[in-house]
Write a structure and sequence with these properties.
The protein has ten helices and four strands; from the N terminus they run E-H-E-E-H-H-E-H-H-H-H-H-H-H. By secondary structure, it is of the alpha+beta class. Helix 9 packs antiparallel against helix 10. It starts with a strand and ends in a 29-residue tail after the last helix. It binds protoporphyrin IX containing FE. Keywords: Heme, Iron, Metal-binding, Transport.
Length: about 260
C-alpha cells in the first residue's frame, strides 16, 4: 500500500468547478481496483489549498495498472484542466508511526475492561465444564484457563498486551488447539455458551458491540477448529489479532438543538 498526495492551489473563481470536476473524476477512480480509497480535502485556513490523498495498492499498480487501465482516460479528462494548479504530487510510504486516537472507545473499554472479561470467562467455563458436547474437551483444563482466555480476549479487543507478554502469546494459544479435533457442532456450542455467558454477566448488548463481538467469535472459532484438525499444520507464530468495531462504531446521537 502506498499513499499519493497531490497538493493543489486553485484560485477562488475556479474552486466550485474544481470540486465538481473531482466529484465526477471520483467515479472512475472508485471503479479502479488499484485504488484503496481517496479523499479530497480543502484547507480551512487557506481555502485555495486542496490536498488529494489516494491510497493505492502499490506505486506500480498506480503508475502501470491504473494509468494504463480502462478508468484513467475518464478520470484524467475531468482533472486535466487543473494540472497547472498542482504544487506537489508524490508517493509516500508508512514509517510505521501510526495509530488511532481515543475518540472511539476500544471494544475492551466498552465491554467494561479486565473485570468484565474475567466475569465472562468464569461464567463461560462453568457452563463449558457442565456441557455434554464440549465439556469432555476441557476435562483436563488448567484451573487458570478462564483467566488466561480473559486476558486473550481483552488483548484482542484493545486491552493490555498481557496474554502476549505473560502467557506465551499467539503461538501458545495455537499450540493449545493442535490435535483437539474440534467438530463444527462443538464450535457452535462453544460460541453459543459464550454468548449465553455474555448475557448473564451483562456485557453490553447494543447491536454495534454484539456485532463486533460475534464477528470475532465466528472468525476465531473457525480458525481454532481448522487448527485443531489432525492434519492441520498452522503457522505457530503470527501477529496477535486485534479486533475493532468494523463498519459500525458505537452510535452517538447528535446533540439536540
Ligand atoms: C475465538 C475462539 C477461541 C479463542 C480466543 C480461544 C482461546 C484459547 C486460549 C487463549 C487457550 C489457551 C489458554 C491458556 O493459555 O491457558 C485455549 C485453549 C483451548 N481451547 Fe480455545 N479458543 C477459542 C476457540 C475454541 C473452541 C471453539 C474450542 C472447542 C470447542 C476450544 C478449545 C480449547 C481447548 C480444549 C483448549 C485447551 C484447554 C486445556 O488447557 O486443557 N477453543 N483457547
Amino acid at each position: 500500500m502506498i499513499v499519493e498526495y497531490l497538493r493543489y492551489r486553485v484560485p477562488g473563481d475556479r474552486r466550485a468547478e474544481f470540486e465538481a470536476a473531482y466529484a465526477r473524476a471520483a467515479v472512475p477512480l472508485a471503479a479502479a481496483p488499484q485504488c484503496v480509497d481517496y479523499e479530497l480535502t480543502r484547507s480551512t485556513d487557506e481555502p485555495e489549498c486542496y490536498v488529494l490523498r489516494i491510497r493505492w495498492t502499490s506505486a506500480e499498480d498506480h503508475l502501470g495498472g491504473f494509468r494504463g487501465g480502462p478508468h484513467f482516460k475518464e478520470f484524467f479528462a475531468e482533472i486535466s484542466p487543473y494540472v497547472q494548479a498542482i504544487e506537489e504530487m508524490r508517493h509516500y510510504e508508512s514509517t510505521g508511526v501510526q495509530g488511532t486516537g481515543a475518540s472511539v472507545p476500544t471494544l475492551y473499554e466498552w465491554a467494561g475492561g479486565a473485570a468484565a472479561f474475567d466475569r465472562l470467562t468464569d461464567v463461560f467455563y462453568a457452563k463449558v465444564r457442565e456441557d455434554e458436547l464440549v465439556g469432555p474437551l476441557f476435562a483436563h483444563m488448567d484451573p487458570g484457563h478462564p483467566a488466561h482466555v480473559a486476558l486473550w480476549l481483552a488483548e484482542v479487543f484493545g486491552g493490555p498486551e498481557r496474554y502476549s507478554t505473560e502467557h506465551g502469546g499467539y503461538s501458545h494459544m495455537v499450540r493449545r488447539h493442535l490435535g483437539r479435533s474440534i467438530s463444527e457442532p462443538q464450535r457452535r456450542r462453544w460460541v453459543g455458551l459464550l454468548l449465553d455467558a455474555a448475557d448473564e454477566v451483562g456485557l453490553p448488548d447494543d447491536p454495534e458491540f454484539r456485532a463486533a463481538f460475534v464477528g470475532y467469535l465466528e472468525w476465531g472459532t473457525r480458525i481454532a477448529l481448522a487448527n485443531s484438525q489432525p492434519d492441520a499444520t498452522p503457522p505457530l507464530t503470527a501477529p496477535m489479532p486485534h479486533w475493532g468495531w468494523g463498519v459500525a462504531p458505537p452510535y452517538v446521537a447528535p446533540a439536540e438543538g
